[in-house]
Amino acid sequence: MQLSKRQLDTMDAFMLLSMVNMKLRDEYNSLDSLCSSCDIPKSALKVKMGSIDMEYYPDSNQFR
Fold first, then answer.
1. In a domain, 46, yes or no
2. Of 37, 34, 29, 36, which Cα lies nearest the Cα of 16?
3. Bridge partner residues of 56 (DSSP)
4. Which residues contact 46 (CB under 8 A, 6 or more apart)?
5. Cβ distance 20 to 63 under 8 Å?
6. Is 25 within 8 Å of 62 (Cβ atoms)?
7. Which of 50, 62, 64 is nearest to 23 (CA)?
8. In degrees, to the nearest 5, what angle opens at C-alpha 20 toward C-alphas 55 and 52?
9. Does residue 63 lie within any of the structural domains?
10. Up-side HSE of residue 53: CA atoms within 13 Å toward CB?
11. Is residue 64 part of a domain?
């Protein structure tokens, strides 16, 4: 399933967290590559994840 801007705007943040971390683990080696490939703003994704107190850690390539 491809991540879209619409999902970023409408999906529950905890469900989105699960989806994003799975994609980072299985398909993308960085947040930049995920956002670029899916054509979503990295800043918007970080704000959405921040709403549930999640932060991106590049060393582990995941939000936690």
1. yes
2. 34
3. 63
4. 55, 56
5. yes
6. yes
7. 62
8. 40
9. no
10. 0
11. no
41 touches 35 (CB < 8 A)? yes
Tokens at 15, concatenated: 């469900």
Please give the model's pTM, rounded to 2 decimal places.
Answer: 0.92
Provide the domain limits for residue 41: 5-56
CA–CA separation, 39 and 54 (whole Å): 21
**Joined tokens for residue 7:** 């999902």
Q: Is the pLDDT of residue 2 over 90?
A: no
Q: DSSP letter for 30, please.
A: S
Place of tokens 């850690």: 57
Q: What is the pLDDT of residues 33-45, one digit of tens each?
A: 999 999 999 999 9
Q: Which one-letter amino acid corresponds to residue 62?
A: Q
Greatest CA span in the chain, whole angstroms?
28
